[in-house]
Amino acid sequence: MENKLSDDFTQGSIAGKLIKFMVPILGALILQAMYGAVDLLVVGQFGTSAGISAVSTGSNMINLVTFIIAGLTMGVTVLISRYLGERTPEKIGKVIGGAVAFFLLLAVVLMVLLLIFAPVFSGWLNAPREAYDLTVVYVRICGAGLVFVVAYNVISGIFRGLGNSKLPLIFVAIACGVNIAGDLLFVAVLHMNVAGAALATILAQFVSVAISLVIIRRQPLPFSVTWRDIGFNPEIKYFLKLGFPIALQDLLVNISFLILCAIVNGISLEASSGYGIAQKVTAFVMLIPSSLMQSMSSFVAQNVGAGKEERAKKAMVTGMVIGACIGVFIFALTFFRGDVPAALFTSDPGYAARAAEYLKGFSPEAILTCLVFSYIGYFNGHGKTMPVMIQGITSSFLMRVPLSYLFSIQPGANLVTIGLAVPITSIYGILFFTVCYLVFQRKRKQSV
């Protein structure tokens, strides 16, 4: 099937096609990360110190919900890629119709939960007293516009499943431009502080989704969707079977980071703000492995559907090499000069120094997580999402959280040692997935 909106990963250069597909995904992820980063930057420059902590803490909660949605849509992505590899595009319409019905219902449920329980969630995150009310405001405003966040992720998941990563990049670029303009208007000009940052984010998502729907209607698609396809159909069961373990893993991993946020919030307002700034920097650091994982999932799924297992394995190794090579340079920056990227988000030298402390301990993660996420993409592409979920749970609650707490209660504890808990956890993840990979290959050879 030839169509300019889809790409065939089952033939041609692995590295070339993987990089070509990965770069727009990386670009989209960079722009997505700029949402929270721009919010924090503008509030840091034109808002209050408490506003910095509120945006940092509140965005952690919103990111948690977003990761759940993204994990579930990964099931849609993998299923569409597999049907393309099997050369059965007629099944894609039902997948998309089921996704529309399911995710609309999910958006409404999550929106209600965020609106009602925002004070409870802010309390769970141990938001500093000075920033508590502002955190509640941020969560509620972002929660009110959650349907647009869900819509963007579903649309992007569909096109990544088709092997097209360029349109999602266009959609998020539009949103990012609107968000920057909105932040400057609401925060810098109208002095709305945290509320203005949240309003700018939701306005940006709304504009992005509206324009993306207009663009899609004018594009020739390699599948058809009718009104009869939209509803609760059997395809929902299939993409949830793939996506639910990923979403649960993302949920629990992010809960572990929320616990870490609460641990740091209990130290001081300066530590809380410094950690929040560091988290914005680490969000950018994690974009390389995240784009690898998403690319790998689609790449492997197509080849599995086409029966090309050896090509799928080569793609995984290629992704590891590409990611690790880039990670070396990011490691050097965050280890030796973490204050440089931190200074982009605050003019307070104390906050920047505390952020640099955390980044120094975190820095090996830039390399290690590329290996972990390449493994995750490989297993996701095979539909083997259970090992991914188990690794996420065990690494979060047997490694990252206990280590972070242990390091935080030591005499003279600082953010360097707390940050070090993250790369130690990734070493465990590499060992875990290596064992799973060897077992999977042995079972596959026995079945053949």
Describe this structure as you would to a colleague:
It is a single chain. This protein is mainly α. Helices cover 82% and strands 0% of the residues. It is built from 16 helices and no strands. The chain has helices at residues 14-46, 49-85, 92-124, 132-144, 146-161, 166-189, 193-217, 235-265, 269-285, 287-305, 309-336, 339-342, 349-362, 365-381, 385-408, 415-447. Helix 2 (49-85) packs parallel to helix 7, helix 2 (49-85) packs antiparallel against helix 8 and helix 3 runs antiparallel to helix 4. The two termini are 29 Å apart. The model is unreliable at 1-5 (pLDDT under 50).
Any low-confidence stretches, pLDDT <50, length ≥5? 1-5
What is the CA-atom radius of gyration, in angstroms? 21 Å
Which percent band covers the strand fraction?
Answer: under 5%
**What gap, in angstroms, lies between the N and C termini?**
29 Å
Query: How confident is the prediction overall: mean pLDDT?
Result: 82
**Which class do the helix and strand fractions yield?**
mainly alpha
Helix content: over 70%
